[in-house]
Design goal:
Distance between the termini: 46 Å
Largest sheet: 7 strands, parallel
Structural class: alpha/beta
CATH architecture of the largest domain: 3-Layer(aba) Sandwich
Number of domains: 3
Shape: globular
Helix content: 40-55%
Number of helices: 12
Mean pLDDT: 82
Number of strands: 7
Strand content: 5-15%
CATH superfamily of the largest domain: P-loop containing nucleotide triphosphate hydrolases
Strand order of the largest sheet: 3-2-4-1-5-6-7
Radius of gyration: 22 Å
Length: about 325
């Protein structure tokens, strides 16, 4: 019997119940008291290592993610000393205008691992959030860590310049590009050069692969010196070419940030961003509450009659 109590669900999920885990993530997406209770318990656990995968639509991110799952499970660890046996994927999709749910359903493109007990895949809707990452995603990552997943892949929708938001939720950020679509220039405009830890030129069997790599190298040169220079890996996700090299690059980046003492600083910055988003959401909800009722209408009437200005009216509402 699957419980509805978040604490009991966490216990069941830690024992291997995927149904309990799915219900917890539903609480996280839905919001409300059960969401708050779930998150309160999850934040007492260690956060997993998060690998963000972003890039334009059609770049092959879902197929690449599917192949990367196999590579990660085959490698079994980052450093050969701390193995992990399970991996979770959050596929953040556009929101359906009819149901509010995820449209694309990346699980359809990850059939190889759909029944793998070591893998958990969840599609999450952006729910209108332009950055491609809903407010629920950081909380979902925490829940996955709380039930035992040490590695989480977050694949986001490709919706343009706001995709840089993935960097605030990931320890390692991968930007996927493809030849022939001007993606390297778009990446520069979107600010992805500043947030990318790794570049993947997917569909590398296409013509002009060398020009894409050259453009990225030149843009990295123009970006100035950095402690970590993003690596560029060429892949053909459909047949697995370049995936061992990509996982090796991810491993190298993790070991680098741990050696360079930037790992905890990244986590601290990530936590700051999470708190800021939650604070913004709480304040927005409060504003919506204030913008209804008799007190609000009274201030509107005062404004219409010229008895006060909007700032004074806002101060009165906030003080109430």
């Amino acid at each position: 019997m699957i419980s509805r109590d978040p604490n009991e669900l966490l216990t069941q999920a830690r024992s291997g119940s995927r149904v309990a885990l799915a219900r917890l993530l539903t609480y996280v997406e839905s919001g409300g008291p059960l969401h708050r209770q779930t998150v309160a318990e999850a934040y007492r656990s260690t956060s997993p290592y998060v690998i963000g995968i972003t890039g334009p639509p059609g770049a092959g991110k879902s197929t690449l993610t599917d192949r990367l799952i196999s590579e990660a499970l085959s490698a079994g660890s980052f450093d050969g000393q701390h193995p992990f046996a399970t991996i979770a994927i959050l596929a953040v999709d556009p929101t359906s205008p009819f149901t509010g749910g995820a449209i694309l359903g990346d699980r359809v493109r990850m059939q190889e691992h759909a029944t793998d007990d070591r893998v958990f895949i969840r599609s999450m809707a952006t729910r209108g959030h332009l950055g491609g990452l809903s407010l629920a995603v950081p909380d979902a990552i925490r829940v996955l860590g709380a039930v035992g997943f040490s590695v989480v892949l977050v694949e986001t929708v490709g919706v343009g310049q706001m995709e840089v938001e993935i960097a605030s939720a990931a320890d390692t950020t991968i930007v996927v590009t493809i030849p022939g679509a001007g993606d390297s220039m778009q990446a520069n405009k979107a600010g992805l050069l500043e947030v990318a830890d790794l570049f993947v030129v997917n569909k590398a069997d296409r013509p002009d692969i060398s020009s894409v790599r050259r453009d990225l190298e030149q843009m990295l040169d123009l970006g100035g010196e950095r402690a970590w220079r993003p690596t560029i890996t060429e892949t053909v996700a459909t047949d697995g070419r370049g995936l061992p090299e990509l996982w090796a690059a991810i491993t190298e980046h993790r070991l680098f940030i741990e050696r360079d003492d930037t790992f905890m600083e990244r986590r601290r910055m990530r936590t700051r961003v999470e708190l800021q988003r939650v604070l913004s959401a709480v304040v927005s909800n409060r504003v919506r509450e204030l913008a209804n009722g008799d007190a609000y209408e009274a201030q509107v009437a005062r404004l219409v009659s010229g008895q006060c200005d909007p700032y004074t009216a806002a101060d009165v509402l906030l003080q109430s």
